TrEMBL record:
Gene3D superfamilies: 3.50.50.100. One of its GO terms (biological process) is sulfide oxidation, using sulfide:quinone oxidoreductase. GO terms for molecular function: FAD binding; sulfide:quinone oxidoreductase activity. Residues 59-187 form the FAD/NAD(P)-binding domain. InterPro entries: FAD/NAD-bd_sf, FAD/NAD-binding_dom, Sulphide_quinone_reductase, TAT_signal. Pfam families: Pyr_redox_2 (PF07992). This is Sulfide:quinone reductase. PROSITE patterns: TAT.
Length: 488
């Protein structure tokens, strides 16, 4: 079944590229995507990923069977001659392709396009425990699951992802906390008939497309409508997604000939569009060209679903008292509540580590698992590593980040098993395929230097069709059949 799905994906890619006069090989050459070697043929993929097997032995437990956990398990299986790996994961659909949520919400994908069975990707020989780790005892190298099973380990990898904290927003307390995948009944029930949506839930992304179509149809019918898009005051996964859904709403309005009847406004908590100045400037120019508005330093604090009013904490700094000794003014943060009416509201909820991890001995004051940002090794426990959304790594909550992280983690874990120094370093590489239109993507690549780090000789601030092909047709098979095999 997986080979059939892959072949179908490749046929779609080839057909789309043919329209542009490109072969798959040429497209990959232009894109500079060396990690996509497996898309070319098996022998090239094997040559690109072959490594000397290590005879080191240890019991390895991975908490979390999503993209990070399965990819890491697969690479460990490829690297160790006698692997002993256990994955603890409660959701049988945990490897579903979450980056596709934005495309579901804009009518490009359907939910079926991104859903997979985790069991189809578990590497041969890896033990799978369908349960949730809820207690951690790192001093004794063991943990306990929700069903009461005690699991011992020599090395622990925490790849449990994060939770959506809708309940932190006044008016949404009934939702509480949720995962992107899984039961979304509280989200759907609370948001029903309100014009409120969130792509950060997969089922919520389906509802977003329904709400977007109603919003577009209202504008097409001549109604003056307001679309509001938020970005919270916490770390989030896929930091570009709050803007992507706004761009795509704009695109659907233009397509319907109804753009002039809609006002679209972005309300980010921060003071820029993007942490990398070059991409910030590019996005501002794109917003201006599309007549999309924005208001910095606004954090969503409440939603009145009946009256369709979003309340924001608008915050800014002013000069306070003058310090004679320091010869400078203190800066005082000011606040005011701002009420904004909406017809369509997209919420990017605050996000957090699951309490059972964040509040445990392996967590931190901010909840995320504290690791050395380069080696991904826990700052306190040498036999614990963390990866993906839950790791306290700057700018590291994207699938593109994980593609670099899991290779570093495996190298360093094997080195630790062999009693060697941890020499592999994660340099903060992150990639954000920022969808700016139906058919256009700006491929933002960067690292901790906060400078563009393009892997191809093209201006990275430009929107391009080739990156749309990459995003819509190539990244999913690269992820599902490359990373989850430990080879991409």
């Amino acid at each position: 079944m997986l080979k059939k799905d892959l072949q179908e994906s490749l046929e779609i890619i080839d057909n789309e590229l043919k329209k542009q006069g490109l072969s798959r090989r040429d497209a990959l050459k232009v894109a500079g995507i060396g990690s996509a070697a497996f898309l070319l043929n098996g022998s090239e993929a094997e040559a690109a990923t072959s490594a000397q097997a290590s005879d080191a032995k240890a019991k390895i437990v991975i908490v979390g069977g999503g993209l990070s956990g399965i990819a890491t398990a697969a690479r460990l299986t490829n690297t160790l001659s006698n692997p002993d790996i256990t994955i603890i994961e409660p959701n049988p659909k945990s490897v579903s392709y979450q980056p596709g949520n934005t495309l579901i919400a804009s009518g490009v994908y359907t939910k079926d396009d991104i859903m997979y069975d985790t069991k189809d990707f578990v590497p041969s020989g890896v033990t799978m425990i369908q349960d949730k780790a809820v207690e951690f005892d790192p001093e004794n190298n063991k943990l306990t699951t929700e069903k009461g099973q005690v699991v011992n380990y020599d090395f622990l990898i925490v790849a449990a992802g994060l939770k959506l904290n809708f309940g932190q927003i006044a008016g949404l307390e009934s939702i509480g906390e949720a995962y992107t995948l899984g039961d979304a009944s509280k989200i759907l029930k609370t948001f029903a008939n309100s014009g409120v949506s969130s792509i950060y839930s997969t089922d919520g992304a389906v509802a977003t497309w329904e709400n977007m179509q109603k919003f577009v149809n209202d504008a097409k019918a001549g109604k003056q409508v307001k679309g509001v898009f938020t970005h919270p005051n916490t770390s989030i996964k896929c930091g570009g997604a709050p803007k992507k859904i706004m761009y795509l709403t704009n695109s659907r309005l233009v397509e319907a000939g109804a753009r002039k009847n809609a006002e679209l406004t972005f309300y980010p908590n921060g003071g820029t569009m993007f942490g990398v100045p070059e991409y910030h400037e590019a996005i501002v120019n794109q917003f201006k060209a599309r007549d999309m508005k924005w208001n910095y330093n606004h954090n969503l604090t409440g939603v009145d679903l009946e009256k369709k009013i979003a309340t924001f904490d608008h915050h800014w700094k002013e000069k306070g008292e003058y310090d004679v000794d320091l010869e400078e003014y203190s800066m005082v943060t000011k606040h005011e509540n701002v009420e904004v009416p909406f017809d369509f509201l997209h919420i990017t909820p605050p996000m957090k580590a699951p309490d059972e991890i964040g509040n445990s001995p392996i967590g931190s004051a901010k909840g995320w698992v504290p690791v050395n940002k380069e080696t991904l090794q826990h700052v306190k426990y040498d036999n614990i590593f963390s990866i993906g959304d839950i790791a306290a790594v700057p700018m590291g909550k994207t699938g593109g980040s994980v593609r670099k992280q899991y290779k570093v983690l495996v190298d360093n874990l094997v080195a630790a098993m062999e009693g060697k120094p941890l020499t592999s370093k994660y340099e903060g590489y992150t990639v954000c395929p920022l969808i700016t239109d139906i058919g256009k993507v700006m491929l933002a690549e960067f690292n901790w230097t906060k400078k563009p780090t393009p892997s191809f000789p093209l201006d990275p601030t430009q929107e391009r069709y080739i990156w749309w092909i990459l995003k819509v047709y190539m990244l999913k098979p690269m992820t599902m059949y490359g990373m989850l095999s430990g080879k991409a």
